Amino acid sequence: MKKLLYTLTFCSSLFLTAQTAGVFLGEGEDNGKSFTIGSDASVEAIQKTAKDYNSKDVAALMTNYTKEFSEKAMDWSVDWLGSMETITMDPYMIVPVKMEGSENTMVLTWSTEDRDFKDGSKEDLDLMEIFTVDKDNKVTAFSQWVQRLETSNFGLNYGGKFIGDGTSEWSGRPLVFSNRGEVEAIETLVAAYNNRDAEACNAVFAEGAEFLDSEGNKMTLNTELWDSMFTSFTELSWEVKSIVPLKIQNTDTESGVTVFSRERRVHTDGTVWEKELVEWFYFNKEGKIARATQYERSLPKE
């Protein structure tokens, strides 16, 4: 009998222990609270949400949401699902958990999602989402984390290929976007150039920075050169169309920025120079432009 009581007590202890697990470590009054497993009804609510989402039936989809959340999500859902030829969210793992003392359930959902847009592009994703479901099993909010698959037509955080002369240790590596203030630096340079501010222009460049213009002329940039250039024009206008900062994947912080623009210069003798430009600006580790190269073409004939 003692052995039976001990076994029952031990099993009961294990059972009770298994009812709560984990801990919330964020700030606020919920700090330190644990979690319990939620209900199957909350899981079924997410499965129905996925079904209605896949059918692109906005009216049906809204029935899975609270009134407040559906009001926020309606216009977005119409536009989003309307942009799709087909869309398939396929959950492969759903885990409902409740924080101690809360009426809401957080339904953790792992899924794949294939998006075929009406414009012909495709996007393939692995998703991890948290759907917040209330006591009536209605969705009140959700958060999403995305991993794009290599089969996606867009949205990857790498792409292209660096080739160089073929002998570099980096040859063959993909490119990634750089985000060290290059866009802001180019915008600052453009504004300073149009304002004929020699000091502000020079401040964007590293000391001794070189510029190779479209005619093959190489010059070392400094404030005096900027001043000399500005005094030779009666009119200047540099209008940028795009700024693309890239770097080679898994290398240091140096980056190259491709700028597509249109520039108009009126010389003191009345000569007009107006071209479309593609320029490459090389940013060093300190975030300054160390060198720049320019390519030009005449304006398209009307």
Any overview of this molecule?
- The protein has about 300 residues and is α+β, with helices and mostly antiparallel strands.
- The chain folds into two domains: about 30-150, Nuclear Transport Factor 2, Chain: A (Roll); about 175-300, Roll (Nuclear Transport Factor 2, Chain: A).
- About 25% of the residues lie in helices and about 40% in strands.
- The chain is built from seven helices and twelve strands.
- It has helices at about 1-20, 40-55, 60, 65-80, 180-195, 200-205, 225-230, and strands at about 35, 85-100, 105-115, 120-135, 140-150, 175, 205-210, 220, 235-250, 255-265, 270-285, 290-300.
- Strands 6-9-10-11-12-7-8 form a seven-stranded mixed sheet. Strands 1-2-3-4-5 form a five-stranded antiparallel sheet, with helices on one face.
Note the quaternary state here. single chain
- Could you give the count of β-strands? 12
As for the CATH topology of the largest domain, it is Nuclear Transport Factor 2, Chain: A
N- to C-terminal distance: 101 Å
Percent in helix: 25-40%
Report the order of strands and helices: HEHHHEEEEEHHEEHEEEE
CATH architecture of the largest domain: Roll
Output the CATH class name of the largest domain: Alpha Beta
Radius of gyration: 30 Å
Quick summary:
By secondary structure, the protein is α+β, with helices and mostly antiparallel strands.
SSE topology sketch:
Layout: H1 2-18, E1 35-37, H2 40-54, H3 58-62, H4 67-82, E2 84-99, E3 105-117, E4 122-133, E5 139-148, E6 175-177, H5 182-194, H6 198-203, E7 205-212, E8 218-220, H7 223-231, E9 233-248, E10 255-267, E11 272-283, E12 289-298
